[in-house]
Design brief:
alpha/beta; two-stranded antiparallel sheet; 45% helix; globular
């Protein structure tokens, strides 16, 4: 609890919201066998306005839909919210073949009986977890339609052939979605109406500096400015339609920095983490030119990290 409060206070989150989080955590316990699902995120989310919107919505029992371009931190925010509220996380990665059985559960034969093998949504509802619905706009409408009663005022799941379960008061659902990915589609209007929607802002220099400093305390300031500049240059080119968002990969940049920390040449690391994410030869050349202006071939790991 102390870590959570300190994290929120460091970002100047409204005191009433912090108090609300504390009260929520104190009145909602977690089953012992589910505590292993409460995990502090590897990456902290930085953004006062977005955090306040999300916390206020969740305190009021609402569900969230996080939309926006690639590398805006949708999944990072979802994981941070679950940690802030002290709830177990249940991840569901949607795809075109996701069906209701994947979400609620399917029949299985156990101890000479047909029993329900509970799905992630069922367990989330039962134990009051935070269900992260990743890429929710990749699923077919008939699959996500089983969530309608869980997401609205009814807050229940009617399992065919079994019983109706009432959703734990602490349970919340957080959907994430990208536009334009292969296999995505417009969300059903009935589903969208059951969420409050946060359109995630693009990364800025302040946010990137927070991420790089928190992940790599020994990263030199001069090198950090170049990595931030590289991301901002690629983001601008993607916004202008000069390149796709394949190279705009914050995870790739962070992973490249990890390999540099291990002693790999920065030029080779950024090739793996950024340049090689493009498979079109012309796009790759554009990205390579941007990279070369920021990460010189002559750099060594000592130019990036303090000894």
């Amino acid at each position: 609890m102390e870590q959570t409060v300190a994290f929120l206070e460091n970002q100047n989150i409204d005191k009433n919201l912090i108090r609300g989080v504390e009260e929520f955590r104190s009145r909602n316990f977690v089953e012992e066998e589910e505590k292993r699902r409460i995990v502090k995120p590897d990456m902290a989310f930085y953004g006062k306005e977005v955090l306040e919107m999300a916390i206020a919505a969740l305190l009021e029992g609402e569900n969230l839909l996080l939309t926006g371009a690639k590398a805006t931190g949708k999944n990072v925010l979802a994981e941070n919210l679950a940690w802030i509220f002290g709830r177990p996380v249940y991840n569901v990665s949607f795809h075109v073949n996701t069906d209701s059985g994947d979400l609620i559960g399917t029949d299985t034969f156990l101890d000479n009986e047909v029993k329900l093998r509970k799905g992630s949504i069922y367990r989330c509802a039962q134990y009051g977890g935070f269900g992260i619905l990743d890429e929710v706009n990749m699923a077919k409408n008939d699959a996500v339609s089983v969530l309608h009663a869980a997401l609205d005022y009814r807050r229940c799941i009617d399992v065919p052939g079994y019983d109706k379960i009432d959703i734990d008061p602490a349970a919340r659902f957080i959907g994430t979605m990208n536009y334009g990915y292969a296999g995505t589609k417009e969300l059903n209007e009935a589903l969208v109406s059951r969420f409050l929607v946060i359109d995630m802002p693009a990364q800025d220099e302040e946010t990137l500096a927070f991420i790089f400093q928190s992940r790599f305390p020994k990263l030199k300031n001069s090198a950090m400015k170049q990595w931030i500049g590289l991301f901002m240059d690629l983001q601008l080119k993607a916004q202008n339609g000069e390149i796709t968002t394949k190279a705009l990969d914050l995870r790739g940049m962070l992973e490249a920095l990890k390999t540099i920390r291990q002693g790999l040449s920065p030029a080779l690391a950024v090739k793996m983490g950024v340049v090689n994410k493009c498979f079109d030869i012309f796009e790759k050349e554009i990205v390579q030119d941007v990279v070369m202006t920021r990460i010189p071939d002559t750099w060594t790991p000592r130019d990036v990290f303090e000894d």
